[in-house]
Queue: 2 jobs
Job 1
Amino acid sequence: MKLSSHEFRSNTLPAAITVIPAVAWLALFVAIPLVYIVVMSFCSIDEYYNVTFQFTLGNYANLLNPSYVQIYVQSLVIAALSTIICLALGYPFAYLISRTFKEHKVILYMLVIIPFWTNSLIRIYGWRTFLGASGFLNAALMSLHVVNEPVDFLFNQGATILGMTYDLFPFMVLPLYTAIEKLDEAQIEASSDLGAHGLATLFKVVVPQTVSGIFSGCIMVFIPSLGAFYISDILGGGNSDVIGNLIQRQFQSGNNWPLGAALSIILIAITLLLVKVYQCSGGDMESLGV
Amino acid sequence: MVPMSAEPIVQIRNINKFYGDNHVVRDLDLDVLEGEFLTILGSSGSGKTTTLRMVGGFEQPTSGEILLGGENVADREPYERDVNTVFQSYALFPHMTIFDNVAYGLKMRKVPKDEIVRRVTDILALVQLTAFESRRPSQLSGGQMQRVAIARALVNHPKVLLLDEPLGALDLKLRKQMQLELKRLQRKLNITFLYVTHDQEEALTMSDRIGIMHDGVLEQVGVPKDIYEEPANRFVATFIGETNLFDGVISAVGGDIARLTIESGTVLGRCSGLKVGEMAAVSVRPERMRFSTMPVDGFSIEGIAREQVYVGSVLKSMVELPNGQEVRLERLASDPLPADGPVYLYWDPLDARVVQSPDQAVYGAVQTATFL
């Protein structure tokens, strides 16, 4: 069927104008790089570490190297602990924001948002300065004679988990806040009216209805903390590598892009798997922004 | 009907509530008798919901006492009070089945499991929702959710059931049906209902007694007939049903009849507790208004018949007075007014009620409340 010029102008053109930029954006920044990574993960390298387009499954076989597996495990532990700490601190905080009145709400909200807007590398270096051997914390402890020589706060898993928790905290709070905010105040009143104390109301009524927020917050913290190599670099000092460090190394000093690509695919696979688990357990996909 | 000897189960004693500078409930006293259906009727912003929420424990009164079964509960949490609430939005728990929703209160109060099953099953049968017990709230219609909300509250055998505009979200037909059903439940279970609504027909249909609330003040409490026929003041007279008000000053009082001097002459009406010289208004319902084509012995007010609308059983007419006031009449269709002719309005003094009208300037604009 041939469109008249009028039909084209009134139907097709506006639709195209609104849709094309979004599609182009997605294609350019999501689809093409993803395809590139997938293709790369099946490529080989020659003896000079140049990528050659020769199909191989060798990169995926290499992933099972025990030294890598050990880092996966370490990375999953760091991510899990960071997520649990974020949730434990973030849930009460998000609850507090959603249940306070206007002006105070803005202040609490800003406490989360302002660090969120600040460059995360700078904030992580800030922690390094604060926790370092000659940093503020050690200086304070020594001047108070709590300790006689500087404590090694840095360059261990704890410091990395601290950094991850701190850096990714807003990603936990914001989806939780959205979920709790949606909850009708009358639900809480009804629970109390029916004889439930505060904690019973929290666990029987509030938490079950904010599971989607909890899950999306956990995903938003868990996934980046598998990849946030700069945090484990700066605060962990090579003692607490995460999957992100492995990937980064393949693309830089290791100069093995196909292996790095295969590692990246694994990271994506873990993400998708978690989302699938969430979906199968009856989670609401819309609240993940899916 | 509730026996006159019934004991008060809720005693609200001189309650005041402020939100900042906003005085939303003023010096409120109210006794709710055991087993009665008492409705607080008022427009939005009258403080009726706040009053109910203070009884439920969701708001603390700024001053005053709330006695429940003789004990002051004003400072207690909702879960420490033997009352239950049916919320306007129902507030059913969406993640639980209907059975679990209804069982929630009993579980929280650690009732033995077999008793929970028995009581929940019984109450679901009573509200005719047995077949729905394993569904979720989202799978029910509005009317069904309403019944779950009522069952969830009633299953706990509260001393008083508080209902906050529970039928507000339903369509008209369902609302009428639920009004009768609620009344039936209340009689059958003999539980005290404290009900809040802005719908006066709903209040008149269901209540044993009605309290009229306006601007934080409880203006009058009484049985529906008294509220309609013996309004305590000008506000109540205009708020319930339709009425004609003639503002004036009391010029004489004899027994329970008072003479009022109004702009168009002098008129008579029943009166209690008012004195000569007081500002007052006489309230005459449209169906009690009479007319003649000639001046009448005693008193009459001259006007011009303006409009007549035939609405089946009755004729609704309007007579305009020389000062522009419009007086409404409701008459049998067989007895029409002369079109655009002079008429003389009068009434039986026993059919008219003289009410206090201290602030006529404020109310001056409100001549009749149009409620049909």
Note: Residues 231 and 238 of chain A are 10 Å apart (CA to CA).
Job 2
Amino acid sequence: MPNSNFFSTTYAVARNAFREAVRDRVLYNLIVFVLLLTAAAIFLGELTAGQEARVVTDLGLSATLIFGVFIAIFVGVSLVWKELEKRTVYSLLSKPVSRTNFILGKYLGFCVTLLFNTLVMGVVITLALLYVGGAKYIAGVWPAIYLIFLEMTIITGVAIMFSSFSTPALSALLTFFVFVIGHFSSSLRDLAQSMGSDAALVFFNIVYYLLPNFSNFAVISNAAIGQHPPASMLGFATLYAVVYDVILLTITAVIFKRRNFK
Amino acid sequence: MKGRSLIKDVILPIAIIIAGFAVLSPLSDLVAARKPVVPESYNDTDLFVKGRELKGFVLGTESLVADWYWMRSLQYIGDKVVNSKEDLRLDDLRNLNPRLLYPLLDSATDLDPHFIAPYAYGAMVLPAIDGNQAIAIANKGIASNPNEWRLYQQLGYIYWRLKMYDEAAKVYEAGSKIPGSAAFMKLMAASMKTEGGSRSTARAIYTQMIADAEDEQTRNTAKRLLDQINSMDDVDALNNALAEYKQTSGHCVNELRELEPILLKTTLPAGRDFSVDAQGRIVDPSGAPYGLDRTACTATTPRRPQ
């Protein structure tokens, strides 16, 4: 059973990981996002035949997902790699910090960065919706923002897992593949069923059950028509993300513990 | 100590991973079951950004966005056909309510007026939805591509489908004057005036369309329509044979295959022969067996979705 020292050490690593992300200007993407949404809210009226609120919802949530995923992938893969490359991991691990502390702290610190990022984006979308008179969409936007954040925590976990044994470029590529396949996995399984090939069915079932099913977190279309998911769905989605994150961090910790830093 | 390390470093992580994956599948199903369903009408919501409004705002990628509208139009109709619960009639698709097809094709061709495939697809499908929209998209194609004789062929086809044979003849005639146009255009100009509504004209039109089509969707639709005409010829021939059999024997056949001696002497249009499946049943061009209405002593076309 982890003692209180484990938690305080993990907290210290997490706090430093958050500070590091801020120092690395990760949050500068928010400026681009604010500009994008401001421009969309002002100019879309001319282009969208009275559907500004819907387009702001679609554009805002899609941009939140895309910006977030790219940050999760590219910053996520460098979290561990940078410490190894700069050799700062040696001084860190020579202190009473275990490798599990290190991985968990880095992950949690970066998740807080992502949470802050998505919260600000959610506020910007809300303000843009108020500006274009789409207040009724706001109730659907916040659950969607929350689910996007959950998706990003899984993507960060995948990125850290790959980066614990691979190069940053390959890790980024593999994580991106997981993101794409995760959004298609249920459709691919349906396609395999309609193909009638046993081999394809087995293969896509394995893909479906092993890779994260990101379609569970995709409610942008619902938000764009003013629908919002029930609390039970949000609860189960949270549980799903937590379980998946635990699996990924366990695998990462096991690999990282066995890694030789020489 | 060693045993404790084995549990902590090997057994516990493996147990967490296995238990985690065991929980994920039912959890995923629970989330999916609670996810709100987007209403069916969502796909028919008016386009909120039309092609002409995007022109000049897409950083020179108009052609790519036109491709997107074009693919979206194919998926839109495809989804409607796949999800249709009724038997489809290719000559009247209004019950599918495909209200976005024209705006999608219009947007694709606004962004890239020289993109021929949307005009061809519109000519093939829109007459079964709204004749005026079909004429509008074909005229738009001719205005942007006056030297493309196939667009005249498509507009002629639309007029023919709408039984406007004089207009069809004029369009085929105009198209036949374009350098490089097929000889078929001149033939059509003549036959529209004399036998516009005949089945042989329809067969000629669809055969030519199958040969000329540059995209798979147009070719498949033309092939299905040609199959429909062939099927009508089959039913006519079967009914003639049934009448002949009844006249000689005084009763109707129990099965269509009993007509075989008469059918062997029958000649179908375009030199076709009857098709028979592995069970010896007479089948239509898609392989579905014809039925027999013994009360009326007539052959019936197979009922199936297209």
Note: Chain A has one domain: 7-258.
